[in-house]
Design a protein that fits this description.
This protein has 126 residues and is mainly α. The protein contains 6 helices and no strands. The longest helix has 18 residues. Keywords: rRNA processing. This is Pre-rRNA-processing protein TSR2 homolog isoform X2.
């Protein structure tokens, strides 16, 4: 038994070093990151077409905002993000939320731009 009569599973305990290297706390002011994600998604023609034509239903705009929020959480909670993870998130979101597959290379382009934004955020370039 752990402290206070609770049982702890030590397999789920992460070392402080791993945590510092891989997990970044959400800063009080991440407006640069939020704004950057929003701007990139607002310039993405495929997503904007899906929203405008309501391919995700009447709440298509809300779904695009949820995508932005998911990206923000991904970037703000982890220092280690790959472009493939971003591509997968974008592809999955379009498929599941908008019933849309985009094969014009724009997912990869947007993922690259988002990766650059994430890297700039990590090193403090605003």
């Amino acid at each position: 038994m752990g402290a206070g009569g609770r049982t702890f599973d030590t397999a789920h305990v992460l070392s402080a070093t791993w945590h510092e290297k891989h997990v970044r706390p959400i800063a009080d002011d991440d407006s640069f990151l939020r704004r950057g994600i929003g701007e990139l998604l607002s310039r993405w023609g495929g997503l904007q077409m899906a929203v405008k034509n309501q391919w995700g239903g009447h709440d298509s705009l809300k779904k695009s905002q949820e995508l932005a929020h998911h990206l923000y959480l991904l970037f703000s909670q982890s220092n280690v993000v790959t472009v493939e993870e971003i591509e997968n998130l974008l592809h999955e979101s379009l498929l599941l939320s908008f019933n849309t597959e985009i094969e014009d290379g724009s997912i990869e382009e947007v993922a690259e731009q988002l990766m650059i934004l994430h890297e700039e955020h990590l090193i403090g370039i605003h």
